[in-house]
């Protein structure tokens, strides 16, 4: 931007045009230079090669200073100075250059045909021991600069130090490739940013992304040469050369007219048909800007022949206005200059360049170059003396062999004939091959075949430099100089390798795709690819032409090899996990099933038989007698219970009884580590406590649970059994129930307030009463398998178990008993609170219009909102049913710790007795979580209840049994 | 004794026929190796014993590089200089591994011979102890199975040794050296035992534990008669004194009993001295052979 401004300044104020141009020229002598060129070349296979060439040069810092106008200072200049780069080349390539069809013996193919992916090589001007560090830093810097994963070249397994086999390098050179790197516009954009005009003006405006990336080959290259650190020699400063080589297929607009020769006319093309854009003048910052059309020697001579043939037919194909016609084709714009090659090595004849200077065009006068063929032409590109290809041999995942075959092309014969003049007829071929370390090459197995005959290695190989790969440290490098005889038709190199094993974290994400062996570089140092164009004064200025003139060895890259390696297979651990899980699930599931299902069936059988045959008379009688006694029914000894049950239901099979007694006995002396899976009911234990343990009458306390029990729809049998008597009982006791309940709660509350927290008051009460020290023994005691106190012939424990289950299962859906209960207790919230000693909050409750129904549904949060201190653990004060609803509302499983232990008073049909149970003791957490899965398998609600009262009062239980 | 043994040998031509049959079997397998492809099996030729890697190491050495460069070769430099040239030489039309296979066949055979000799030695010692006990009749009557022959045949016909011999591995040579060590210990040839032990340990580390049996063998002699037997002999000395043929026998009986019981330190000390000497020698040889390529340190690194 500085330059045009300066020019405008001159124009406006000095108004001397002549002096301006002179000055400009003078200034450019010592200033930065930028030039842009585009070379277009029709290819034999109906495609067009477009080669953009941008070059910017900055004079050496010593003479010029550090201030830059054109040269990308932050990106390149600092890079060069920081890492002391002498020469560097970075290329991003997509597609494979076809050496047979697009040429393998001209400067463009030698310099710009690159292996797919990323190739980076750099020569540093640092001491040898710093080269690796410089390389690593450079790769990181470039990775950031070009938005690509060049930083993978940092690892020592990814780069190599060529020693003479690659571009006659010195020891300060490093070479690395990433064959699998995908090239995308995000790599092109930073590349374009290095140009002074970006892609906004000049030739780079042609770079329409879709059309470029649609091409058959796309290689974007950045070459950097610096003489900043040369102590001797000519100082040219830093030269940044950016090229973009694209092979495009022009859209053939239906001119496939068959000619007599049978060949098809080549498709005509124009810049706009190739790129979809037109050029509007040059980039103003560029010193030179021109477009060339190159006709290869073979094509040109072919065209000349055609012209001679056709001269008599169409002696004058008059050019259209503005267009320019040559023997075989027509250009829509007449070229400014035609440059012919001098003393070409090719026997085909000299190639021709048509130059178009972009200075003559501007936005108003767009440059639109069209190229129209007149005749079908067939020609072939100059090719390298030997066509190289590389392939893998062998099978299996253990070993294989790399074969490199060189097949002579026709042209090479001609070269050899020309070469015979030399003292020794030989064809030198340099092979540079980098092999990753996991391909372990046996260098002693190198075999050379010339014309399909095995040759002894020293005869053919003039020089061989090998640096063997080291496991996980460095790749193997093989540099071979072959000296093949002149008349060689084909030559082949084979070398065997073993496939190594990678560590599991060294595999790429798509390990099954295989691993790439980078391209081998094959160069023919005796053959120089250069085009010597007729010198004229101005052609000196064109960097592209001078580049073409440069003598560089013919170079070609082979294919990338894809080596399949053994890949880790994760199906084994997966199978192990699956099988283990299956076994566990089957084992425990079936165990639970067996334990549960069978007992349940037995019970059902028992119940139905008892109900059918005996009726309920004995049962009722026993209940009645127990009630009359006014004490909790004390279960008789197990023998007596069995006898009583047998007497009550004579049809119970003897076998079943034995089983029951056996299980009860086992449970009475439970194994210490056994989780309570033997419980037939949904892991809920119910224990009868001795009435004396609780210092108050508890028979009526269980009344609320009575109504709970009524709602058990899922347990039909139990429902059937108790349907009749329950209403009576509840009706009878409805008056006293609340009072007593509250009394109980009061005592619980005291216990809570004494700082015990979750531990329910009942236990502490009992603790106090019994005078024993209760130190969370439930936590330490192993869970005791709950036998069936439930089963013991009579059905009372069962009912309690079911009731408790009912209360725990949050699915309680019966509003009817609830309303009943509410009605009974509807007198007031006040009295309830009073009974709890919380009279002072009654005003709050009244203000919020909380009646008993609403109170039932209140959660901790609600109460907190009311201002009730949570230290009270209010929720635990609710009667069991409320608790059930309460917990059901919150969550099903996670409340186990809250209800660590809860005292429920369950109504026993005949003699009310206290039953306490808890959801899960801390030591039982495990079995809780485990049985979660098991129970859900059995389609049950995940609940475990074990009574720590039971644990602490095993004496009673045993007695009861 | 030797006459008897030779007679026994004549009586048992089966040993030799079987031994040669095994050698011929190996040769046949070597001549048709392509079907077997044993050399590539990791069970047969480990990275330590693979001849292919040895050839690679030799090639690298010839290319004036360290044979240990490239983490291919991990073996001994001595083996490299012995077997290396054989890997390169090839006959017309023959694969290159023939020579090495022949070497391993020979090594196997020699190992078998050493096993047999060791067995004979042990048997002789046993006979001697029997004789010293005066149990001549037992000696004459009992047809003692020659354990050495059987062990040698087992070695020769063992599928593992056959496969490792055919499968281009250096393990036959290691076996040979180990056997050399044991043979030297049994025959009380201390330098031989020390040499075998040192070289075996050098080639592959695990024969180092042979130091225990070798020391015991050298200390107690080839076949230590159990103490009980000696006591028995002492007790029966009185009873059999008259029945014994000569007074010389008696004298020997009276003199001998104390000797074998005690551990004789002399050969053991000699063994250690020899072992030290051989170890130094081997190290010097190795140092010379890898001198140009990083020296001994690199060898120990691999």
Question: Mind explaining what this structure looks like?
Answer:
The complex is a heterodimer of chains A (961) and B (302). Chain A is of the alpha+beta class and 961 residues long. Among the domains of chain A are: 386-414 and 423-568, Immunoglobulin-like; 829-869, no CATH class. Chain A is 37% helix and 21% strand. Chain A has an 11-stranded mixed beta sheet with strand order 5-6-4-3-7-8-2-1-10-14-13. Chain A has a 5-stranded antiparallel beta sheet with strand order 16-17-23-19-20. In chain A, strands 21-22-18-25-26 form a 5-stranded antiparallel beta sheet. In chain A, 43% of the residues are buried. The model of chain A is unreliable at 10-28, 255-261, 315-321, 417-423, 634-651, 670-740, 754-826 and 871-961 (pLDDT under 50). By secondary structure, chain B is an all-alpha fold. Chain B has one domain. Chain B contains 15 helices and no strands. Chain B is flat and about 65 Å long. In chain B, 36% of the residues are buried. The interface between A and B is medium-sized, with 14 and 14 residues. Chain B: This is GPI transamidase subunit PIG-U. Chain B: The chain crosses the membrane at residues 14-32, 68-86, 98-117, 160-183, 195-220, 268-290. Chain B: Keywords: Endoplasmic reticulum, GPI-anchor biosynthesis, Membrane, Transmembrane, Transmembrane helix.
In CATH, the topology of the domain at 386-414 and 423-568 in chain A is named: Immunoglobulin-like
Number of helices of chain B: 15
Segments of chain A where pLDDT lies below 50 for 5+ residues?
10-28, 255-261, 315-321, 417-423, 634-651, 670-740, 754-826, 871-961
* Helix percentage range of chain B: 55-70%
The count of DSSP E runs of length 2 or more, i.e. the number of strands of chain B, is 0
The largest interface is: A-B, 14 and 14 residues
């Amino acid at each position: 931007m500085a330059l045009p401004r300066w020019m405008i300044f001159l124009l406006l104020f000095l108004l001397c045009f002549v002096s301006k141009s002179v000055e400009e020229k003078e200034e450019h002598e010592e200033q930065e230079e930028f030039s842009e060129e585009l070379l277009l070349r029709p290819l034999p296979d109906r495609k067009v090669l477009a080669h953009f060439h941008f070059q910017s040069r900055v004079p050496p810092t010593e003479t010029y200073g550090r201030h830059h106008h054109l040269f990308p200072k932050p990106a390149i200049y600092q890079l060069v100075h920081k890492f002391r780069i002498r020469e560097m080349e970075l290329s991003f390539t997509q597609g494979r250059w076809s050496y047979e069809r697009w040429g393998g013996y001209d400067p463009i193919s030698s310099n710009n045909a690159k292996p797919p992916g990323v190739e980076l090589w750099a020569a540093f001007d640092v001491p040898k021991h710093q080269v690796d560090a410089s390389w690593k830093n450079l790769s990181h810097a470039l990775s950031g600069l070009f938005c690509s994963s060049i930083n993978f070249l940092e690892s020592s397994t990814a780069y190599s130090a060529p020693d003479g086999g690659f571009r006659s390098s010195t020891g300060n050179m490093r070479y690395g490739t990433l064959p699998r790197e995908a090239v995308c516009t995000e790599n092109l954009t930073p590349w374009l940013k290095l140009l002074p005009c970006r892609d906004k003006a000049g030739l780079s405006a042609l770079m329409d992304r879709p059309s470029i990336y649609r091409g058959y080959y796309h290689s974007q290259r950045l070459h950097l040469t610096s003489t900043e650190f040369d102590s001797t020699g000519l100082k040219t400063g830093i030269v940044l050369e950016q090229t973009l080589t694209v092979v495009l297929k022009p859209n053939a607009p239906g001119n496939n007219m068959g000619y007599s020769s049978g060949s098809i006319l080549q498709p005509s093309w124009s810049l706009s048909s190739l790129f979809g854009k037109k050029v509007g003048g040059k980039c103003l910052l560029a010193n030179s800007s021109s477009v060339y059309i190159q006709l290869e020697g073979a094509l040109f001579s072919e065209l000349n022949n055609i012209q001679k043939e056709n001269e008599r037919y169409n002696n004058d194909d008059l050019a259209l206005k503005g267009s320019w016609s040559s023997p075989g084709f027509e250009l829509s714009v007449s070229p400014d200059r035609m440059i012919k090659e001098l003393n070409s090595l090719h026997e085909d004849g000299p190639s021709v360049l048509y130059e178009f200077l972009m200075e003559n065009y501007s936005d108003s006068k767009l440059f639109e170059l069209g190229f129209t063929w007149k005749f079908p032409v067939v020609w072939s590109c100059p090719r390298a003396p030997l066509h190289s290809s590389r392939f893998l041999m062998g099978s299996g995942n253990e070993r294989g062999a790399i074969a490199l075959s060189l097949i002579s092309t026709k042209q090479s014969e001609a070269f050899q004939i020309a070469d015979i003049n030399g003292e020794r007829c030989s064809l030198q071929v340099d092979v540079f091959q980098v092999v990753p370390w996991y391909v372990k090459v046996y260098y002693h197995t190198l075999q050379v075949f010339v014309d399909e005959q095995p040759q002894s290695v020293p005869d053919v190989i003039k020089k061989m430099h090998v640096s063997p790969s080291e496991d996980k440290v460095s790749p193997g490098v093989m540099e071979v100089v072959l000296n093949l005889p002149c008349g060689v038709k084909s030559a082949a190199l084979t070398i065997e390798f073993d496939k190594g094993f990678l560590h599991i974290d060294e595999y790429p994400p798509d390990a099954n795709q295989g691993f790439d062996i980078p391209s081998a570089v094959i160069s023919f140092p005796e053959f120089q690819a250069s085009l010597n164009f007729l010198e004229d004064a101005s052609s000196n200025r064109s960097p592209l032409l001078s580049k073409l003139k440069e003598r560089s060895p013919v170079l070609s890259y082979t294919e990338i090899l894809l080596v399949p390696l053994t890949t880790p297979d994760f199906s084994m651990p997966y199978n192990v996990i699956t099988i283990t899980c299956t076994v566990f699930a089957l084992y425990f599931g079936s165990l639970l099933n067996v334990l549960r299902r069978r007992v349940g069936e037995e019970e059902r059988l028992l119940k139905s038989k008892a109900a059918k045959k005996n009726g309920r008379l004995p049962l009722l009688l026993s209940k009645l007698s127990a009630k009359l006694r006014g004490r909790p029914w004390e279960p008789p000894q197990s023998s007596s219970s069995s006898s009583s049950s047998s007497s009550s239901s004579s049809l119970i099979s003897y076998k079943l009884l034995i089983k029951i007694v056996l299980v009860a006995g086992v449970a009475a002396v439970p194994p210490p580590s056994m989780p309570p899976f033997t419980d037939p009911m949904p892991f809920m234990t119910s224990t009868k406590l001795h009435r004396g343990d609780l210092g108050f009458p508890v028979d009526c306390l269980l009344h609320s649970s009575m109504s709970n029990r009524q709602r058990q729809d899922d347990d039909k049998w139990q429902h059937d059994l108790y349907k009749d008597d329950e209403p009576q009982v509840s009706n009878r006791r409805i008056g006293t129930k609340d009072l007593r309940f509250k009394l109980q709660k009061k005592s619980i509350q005291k216990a809570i307030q004494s700082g015990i927290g979750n531990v329910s008051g009942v236990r502490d009460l009992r603790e106090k009463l019994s005078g024993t020290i209760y130190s969370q023994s439930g936590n330490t005691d192993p869970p005791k398998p709950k036998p069936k106190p439930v089963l013991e012939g009579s059905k009372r424990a069962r009912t309690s178990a079911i009731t408790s289950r009912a209360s725990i299962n949050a699915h309680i859906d019966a509003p009817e008993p609830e309303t009943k209960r509410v009605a009974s207790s509807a007198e007031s919230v006040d009295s309830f609170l009073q009974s709890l000693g919380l009279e002072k909050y009654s005003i709050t409750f009244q203000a919020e219009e909380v009646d008993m129904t609403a109170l039932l549904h209140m959660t901790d949060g609600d109460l907190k909102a009311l201002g009730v201190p949570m230290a009270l653990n209010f929720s635990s004060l609710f009667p069991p049913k409320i608790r059930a609803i309460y917990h059901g509302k919150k969550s099903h499983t996670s409340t186990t710790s809250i209800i660590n232990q809860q005292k429920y008073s369950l109504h026993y049909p005949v003699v009310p007795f206290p039953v306490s149970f808890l959801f899960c003791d801390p030591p039982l957490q495990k079995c809780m979580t485990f049985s979660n899965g098991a129970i859900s398998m059995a389609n049950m609600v995940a609940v475990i209840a074990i009574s720590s009262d039971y644990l602490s009062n095993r004496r009673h239980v045993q007695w009861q049994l | 004794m030797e006459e008897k043994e030779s007679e026994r040998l004549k009586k048992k031509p089966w040993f030799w026929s079987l031994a040669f049959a095994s050698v011929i079997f190996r040769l046949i397998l070597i001549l048709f190796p392509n079907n077997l492809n044993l050399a590539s099996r990791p069970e047969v030729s480990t990275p330590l014993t693979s001849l292919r890697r040895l050839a690679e190491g030799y090639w690298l050495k010839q290319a004036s590089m360290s044979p240990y460069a490239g983490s291919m070769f991990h073996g001994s430099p001595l083996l490299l200089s012995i077997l290396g040239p054989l890997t390169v030489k090839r006959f017309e039309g023959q694969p290159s591994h023939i020579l090495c296979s022949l070497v391993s066949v020979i090594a196997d055979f020699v190992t078998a011979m050493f096993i047999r000799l060791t067995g004979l030695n042990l048997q002789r010692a046993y006979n001697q102890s029997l004789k010293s006990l005066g149990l001549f009749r037992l000696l004459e009557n009992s047809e003692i199975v020659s354990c050495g022959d059987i062990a040698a045949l087992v070695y020769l016909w063992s599928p593992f040794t056959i496969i490792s011999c055919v499968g281009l591995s250096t393990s036959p040579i290691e076996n040979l050296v180990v056997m050399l060590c044991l043979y030297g210990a049994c025959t009380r040839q201390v330098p031989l035992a020390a040499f075998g032990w040192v070289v075996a340990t050098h080639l592959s580390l695990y024969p180092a534990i042979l130091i225990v049996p070798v020391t015991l063998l050298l200390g107690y002699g080839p076949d230590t008669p159990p103490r009980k037997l000696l006591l028995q002999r002492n007790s029966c000395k009185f009873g059999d004194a008259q029945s014994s043929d000569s007074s010389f026998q008696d004298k020997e009986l009276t003199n001998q009993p104390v000797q074998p019981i005690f551990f004789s330190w002399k050969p053991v000390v000699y063994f250690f001295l020899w072992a030290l000497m051989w170890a130094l020698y081997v190290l010097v040889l190795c140092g010379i052979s890898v001198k140009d390529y990083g020296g001994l340190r690199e060898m120990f690194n691999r």
